[in-house]
Amino acid sequence: MTSPMKAHRRVLLASLIGTSVEFYDFYIYATAAALVFGPLFFPSESQSAQLMLSYASFGLAFFARPLGAAVFGHFGDRLGRKSTLVASLMLMGGSTVLIAFLPGYAQIGWVAPLILCVLRFGQGLGLGGEWGGASLLAVENAPRGWENRYGMFPPLGAPIGFIAANGFFLLLGVLLTDEQFRDWGWRVPFLASAILVGLGLWVRLKLTETPAFLDAAAHEALPKVPMATLLRTHLRPTIAGTVGVIACFALFYLTTAFALSYGTTTLGHGRQAFLGLEIGAVLFLALGVIVSCVWADRRGAAAMLKLGFAGCVIAGLLMGPMLGAASLVVVFAWLAFALFAMGFAYGPLGGWLPSLFEPGVRYTGVSVAFNLGGIVGGALAPIFAQMLADRGGLNLVGAYLVVAGVLSLSGLMLLKRPASAA
């Protein structure tokens, strides 16, 4: 018997490419923010202050993402998934490529960080509609009983984009001196994003609309203002979904952006060695996504998410003694475990979040929940982690992960209440 996935190769490829570009774009910024953006765009006498300002620009996109979720969600629920996904990819990719041409503070003064923040905001605006739309593209085309296996393709974009981004920076580290990397080398990954965006557009422009949207448009009146309908009739699932994504964002950005910065500065590990560690460890994220999504079609997405959130708590408890260890083997073990747990906290979201909402508000609901949760779990995580590390070391940073895991578990518990209580 032919796998249903073979009949939807273009759909699954389109959902995978879009989120791969999303995470590539987002993570090249995160890596550059950790390695070079501080001194290039935010001059300060304190290295820690430079880093925090750089992380603040990184976090800016997370605050733009809910706005992008509302805008793209509105059109995605009113006009369809396909055209909205094309627009979100163009905005996201265009903002990323323009960063490659941006002069630093030494050339144009305060205008440099201002433009950087504007482009970062544009990245976030486009990203606000990307993940939710890609998930719907996959799940709304899935045969019955395959929703989570189809839904795993957008989450798999995270390890693919991460490996592409870190691999690029690792290659540049081999080919360029530190001075060349600071002067111009960091710009190359941003410029290369144009190739990935072009590929994504080529695939998406050939798609047709999803069956679920066409059915909803044909048999019911679509909401004129999806956001208003969402808040009026789907408030509890929106809150539950928002809280439920916190753990995956916290795990990802503390095991990648923060760990890279802390490991190469405070702990003194070599940049190339640490980038190599993270590329190896992120393979465990891909493994966790695949395993959890296959099991989710058999045992339910919520059961897999519980395992991931519990793993987030354990990773937080182990963060101090393991990430802070002198041995890179121990550091790798922690990174691999934390990212494998993230696979369970993240992969099933692709099928779980769309299941919380009706088709007429689904694009808005998934996008808003995913991106609001990203503010707490992603935007604030590196900033708070740096503050906590400065004040009390890695054990306090680990406590952030523990809280994130507990919060996401509470999101699942919220759905167990009767819907009429929302």
Number of domains: 1
Main beta-sheet annotation: none
- Indicate the structural class: mainly alpha
CATH-scheme architecture: Up-down Bundle
Please mark out the parts with pLDDT under 50 across 5 or more consecutive residues, or reply none.
Answer: 417-422
Q: Give the mean pLDDT.
A: 85
- Helix content class: over 70%
Give your account of this protein's structure.
- Residues 11-422 form the Major facilitator superfamily (MFS) profile domain.
- It is found in: Cell membrane.
- This protein has 422 residues and is mostly helical.
- It has a single domain (9-215, 223-416), classed as Up-down Bundle (Growth Hormone, Chain: A).
- The chain has 20 helices and no strands.
- It has helices at residues 9-41, 47-78, 81-99, 105-108, 111-127, 130-139, 147-151, 153-175, 178-185, 187-204, 211-219, 226-233, 235-244, 246-264, 271-299, 301-323, 328-346, 349-355, 359-392, 394-414.
- Helix 13 runs antiparallel to helix 20 (394-414) and helix 19 packs antiparallel against helix 20.
- The chain is globular and about 60 Å long.
- Mean pLDDT is 85; it is low at 417-422.
